[in-house]
Amino acid sequence: MLKKTLLLTGLLWLALQVRVADACTNFLITKGATVDGSTMITYAADSHTLYGEMYFWPAADHKPGEMVDVTEWDTGKFLGKIPQIPHTYQVTGNMNEHQLSIGETTFGGRKELHHQPGAIVDYGSLIYLTLQRAKTAREAIHVMADLVAKYGYASEGESFSIADPNEVWILEMIGKGEAEKGAVWVARRIPDGYISGHANQARITTFPLNDPDNCLYSNDVISFAREKGWFDGKNKDFSFSGTYAPVDFGGARFCDARVWAGFRKVASNMDRYQDYALGKITHGANGYATNRMPLWVKPDTLLTVKDVMGMMRDHFEGTALDMTKDPGAGPFKLPYRWRPLTWKVDSTTYVNERAISTQQTGFSFVAQMRSKYPDPIGGIMWFGVDDTYSTCYMPVYCGIQKVPEPIRVGNGDMLTWSDNSAFWVFNTVSNLAYLRYDYMIKDIQKVQSELETKFVDFTPAVDEAAMDLWNKGQHNMARKFLTEYSDKQVNLTVNRWKQLEHYLIIKYKDGNIMKEKDGKFERNESGKLPAMPDQPGYPEWWYRNVAKQTGDHLKEK
């Protein structure tokens, strides 16, 4: 009976995956896995309706009896009010003034647990309320658990990345449905020296029941499943994911495959999980999958912030899922597929791959937390908008006093153009590149690398200058300095991207490719006209396909 129940749940989960698999990707990096001893988490907020901007709440004191409005992050729908606390911390993006950072991916899970009447706190509000109320990752877990217990959980199953300068945790949570308020959850600390990841598939399986230093969980996480008839084994064999969000073809191919792709960039021996990433699942007698990837892996070498940025840029290149290799890439090797995620020919359903880098990203970041510095200086949000593959991660320190204008809330939205909006400037370049991708992406990556390398190389000098002010007791001046520095780098990047847009239009207009020499476009002998451009046409396989499909229609007579 249990095995049959899990099978039916898996089928529901596959149907759900088609809807939620266009969501997000996170990686979690511990201190012992990095060159400089920093912790990091990444987040790509992937949604076709999400505008790329950096949220900001200044620290504030609140009066007794003050309430805070809670609105659903995905829709803007008002959910209710909850009591405010006496003091809230500054939040810059997804990092607060104590370098606590939180990211997420939605895994959905059991459909019967999605709706909770009267619930006030959704997963997005849970993140930003917690960032305003907690100082450490461990404290954040307790704050999140208390909030959903008191006010209900108004979302589907969710995985959260939670990190401070010393610890990195993954928390997985799902509501209790219509019968009961609150949620069941498990949180595990990533062992130092290891990395983890999640991408819209619950990742925590079995967990230690008596190790509070490294594992926390709700008291009823197992008993609730027993009451529902979803688990009847021994407590030590209970799998959170296997019970509340079983992995199946969609969970592996659309979701965990992204974690696998990121892992294989920095850890060897990941190719042994390629069949799993392709969606080939084996199950044990209890219905749980038996060939899943581990929750965490050890990277081959210590990672830099640029290595972690690189983990967020992937289209399955060099694997059996390589999105540049099948005919869907077109003649210019475009590694994107317009939605929907699945499609049919006759009665057969086919899939598009869902890679880490995807066209519908609103914003992404690499949050870097460094314990060797005071919090306002130690925390850096490497922030980007639009597709992770073609974005540029810009340094924004958590101690800034205001957000740079190009990424500030209110500077445009998904239906309102702004010439000084980083989101619209980056989207203009990426959507232009989609027309002749294999050529244009090289030009984009050149500028991307130049800027990101400069930002990373300048960071020690910026830290030193800020520390000099801080050590003199000029804390406000240090924050002002970091505010001005962050502002300049964001504006510099947006202006450089505008120049890149103009360059790409000139170089690739009308299917031509203008000639260049020594960094300048070439002119003819008179100097009044451009040199005759290259016209590379299409690859041979494309011409052969066209000839085959058109028969005699296009033959020269």
List keywords for this structure.
557 residues; alpha+beta; 3 domains; seven-stranded antiparallel sheet; five-stranded antiparallel sheet; 13 helices; disordered N terminus
Note down, in words, how this protein is organized.
- The radius of gyration is 25 Å and the shape is globular.
- The protein has 3 domains: 2-322, no CATH class; 373-511, no CATH class; 516-550, no CATH class.
- The N and C termini lie far apart (70 Å).
- The protein has 557 residues and is an alpha+beta fold.
- The strands form 7 sheets. Strands 16-14-1-2-19-20-21 form a 7-stranded antiparallel β-sheet.
- The model is unreliable at 1-22 (pLDDT under 50).
- Helix content is 32%, strand content 18%.
- Strand 8 and strand 9 (95-96) form a beta hairpin.
